Amino acid sequence: MSVRDGQRWGDWEYDKSRLVLEFDRLRSSDGRDWYEVDLEECTTGLDVLDWILQVAGKRWATPADIGALVLALESLLGPLQNKILNDDLDFCSHLRKYISPQRYTGG
Q: Is the distance from CB of 8 to CB of 15 less than 8 angstroms?
């Protein structure tokens, strides 16, 4: 699937000239929420996961914003599942590092 410059997923927009996904949303009364994901830094599955988790940790990020980011990354970078699972590192052990003890209940 071809992705065009300016394509949007929710409030995320692809900027082809800078190779970034830009989040920009005007808040009703007190400014705007803005963030940028540098696609050139998404070279491994763990890099992609790191960006997703950085956004998930933002106060302004809603579940819809995070889902839209995942869909955008999937469209731009190809199948994320393969990118993550094909990394040489143990995905689950790295994932546990990012999940706070309060949120992680698995073994």
A: no
Could you report the per-residue pLDDT of 7-54, keeping only the tens digit for each?
999 999 999 999 999 999 887 777 888 999 999 888 888 888 899 999
* Helices marked H in the chain: 45-56, 63-77, 80-85, 91-98
For residue 107, the model assigns a pLDDT of: 44
Quote the pTM value. Answer: 0.74
User: Domain spans of the chain?
Assistant: 8-98
Residue identified by tokens 């994320």 is 80
How far CA 93 is from CA of 70, 81, 89, 97, in Å, comes to: 21, 16, 9, 7
Distances from the Cα of 7 to the Cα of 27, 83, 85, angstroms: 21, 22, 27
Asked if 39 and 45 count as a contact pair (C-beta separation under 8 A), the reply is no
